[in-house]
Amino acid sequence: MELFIHSWKFLRYEITRNTSWHCVSVRTKSGQETVAEFTKGGQSSEVAGLINEILENISSGSIPGEDELEKYVGIKETVESGSNTAAALSAVRTVISQLNALVHNLPLCVYLSGQFPSSIDLYANINRGLFASDRSPEDFADAAYQAVSKGFTVIKCAPFDEILFPNPEDIISVARHGIDRLLAIREKVGPEVEILVDCHSRFDKDAAKIVAELITPIGIGWFEEPLDPVEFPTGLAELSRDIALPISGGESGYGQTFFDSLINLNSVQTIMPDIKYCGGVEEAVRIANSAIRSGVGFSPHCPSGPISLLASAHVCASINQRVILEHAVEEFEYRHEFIDPFEVIREGQLHMPSGPGLGADISVNALEKYGEYFSL
Predict the structure, then answer these.
(1) Peptide bond connecting 341 to the previous residue in cis, omega within 30 degrees of 0
(2) For 313, how many CA atoms within 13 A lie in the half-sphere containing its CB?
(3) Could you give the CA distance from residue 254 to residue 47 in angstroms, rounded to a whole number?
(4) Do 244 and 143 share a structural domain?
(5) Neighbouring C-beta atoms of residue 226, cutoff 10 Å
(6) Are residues 18 and 76 in the same domain?
(7) Cα(307)–Cα(305) distance, rounded to whole angstroms?
(8) Amino acid 121: pLDDT
(9) What is the Cα–Cα distance from 142 to 148, expressed in whole angstroms?
(10) For residues 148 and 138, is the Cβ–Cβ distance under 8 A?
């Protein structure tokens, strides 16, 4: 069945001083309607403009296949990872996949060749919930303990965000506060909880090696993006050979080719594509399957809103092995209200809504209370 776009509109939710969520809702002439998140910080408005251009381009005919979109809209050069173009293409490609799932009356994960699960395992990213705190070691420990008390057994934090790149010579002294945060978390949650460390690309290779050696005795599950995988994939590969901690990353990467290059270089032990930037949900599945064939782990990056979390969960359900998905905890008390039916997270799991496509849509009531439509 050919699909034709009828209309689209943009939505924005101002969540906290540090967070806003941006989405696009697209409706076809035959009545299917779906929504995708495209949040990209301060560049979200520019991404919306590019999405608008792409949708105008494809609205003159039937909707192309998601994997044909770049060619259809005349993009001939390689799409740069981390670019606004990558984010816009990712959003539209996800929309196309979700609309096709609706046409076939299938849950998105089933359309993506997976099984429909009752739930998806999550890990708790405590970073965004800490923005309103003093970020003391006690704050980190309390946030981790709160997540554990709600059933999460894996915690991720970003203890080194005050460190600037390029690094000072005495990296140990400037990293000490971050190490103290990790020690406080470990003391609070005990030895059984897994702690993941997100570095947000704050280090050079030599500094990352020193810090990795210092935090290894604490018991760390992975060392996420000590170097930027887009800018320094070879340096990341060299670091991976030099340290005991497994490295994860790739959140801003676009396309299977980029992730395959990380895998071939042995830059990471776990790849972390984000559906908002990697090329959408079907590309994420292709990336995951390629990684799994190579013996590399897969865990989607998703410190995002309920729409993105749910779409990412459908990707996880499409992979033929257990995948653990990121979830930003304790950022906003009423987060669960943003979709209809409500987001349900219990004991460290996202409970999947039934129904075709995502199985949920934006909540009209939540949009009226917390969000707005916006024009370009």
Answers:
(1) yes
(2) 30
(3) 15
(4) yes
(5) 31
(6) yes
(7) 6
(8) 98
(9) 10
(10) no
Do both 160 and 302 map to the same domain?
Answer: yes
Instruction: Measure the CA angle with vertex 297, ends 293 and 299; round to 5°.
Output: 125
The boundaries of the domain holding residue 236 are 111-359
Same-domain pairing of 188 and 315: yes
User: Which residue, among 116, 189, 197, has the nearest Cα to 151 in the 3D structure?
Assistant: 189
Q: What is the pTM of this model?
A: 0.97
Q: Do 156 and 123 meet the contact criterion of CB atoms below 8 Å apart?
A: yes
- CATH number of the CATH domain containing 42: 3.30.390.10
- In a 10 Å sphere around its CB, with 0-12 CB exposed, 13-18 middle and 19+ buried, how is residue 206 labelled? middle
Q: Are 34 and 358 in contact (CB under 8 A)?
A: yes
Residues 86 and 132 in one domain: no
- Tell me the HSE value of 176 on the side-chain side, using a 13 A CA sphere: 4
Is residue 115 pLDDT above 90, yes or no?
Answer: no
* Interacting residues of 263 by C-beta distance below 8 A, sequence separation 6+: 271, 290, 291, 294, 296
Is residue 166 domain-shared with residue 193, that is, in the same domain? yes
Mean pLDDT of 142-165: 97
Other CB atoms within 10 Å distance of the CB of residue 121: 19
The confidence band for 236, taking pLDDT boundaries of 50, 70 and 90, is very high
Extended strands (E) in 239-355 = 247-249, 270-271, 297-298, 325-328, 339-340, 344-346, 349-351
Q: What is the mean pLDDT of residues 198-208?
A: 98
Domain count within the chain: 2
Share of the chain above pLDDT 70, in %: 100
Q: What CATH number is attached to the domain comprising 154?
A: 3.20.20.120
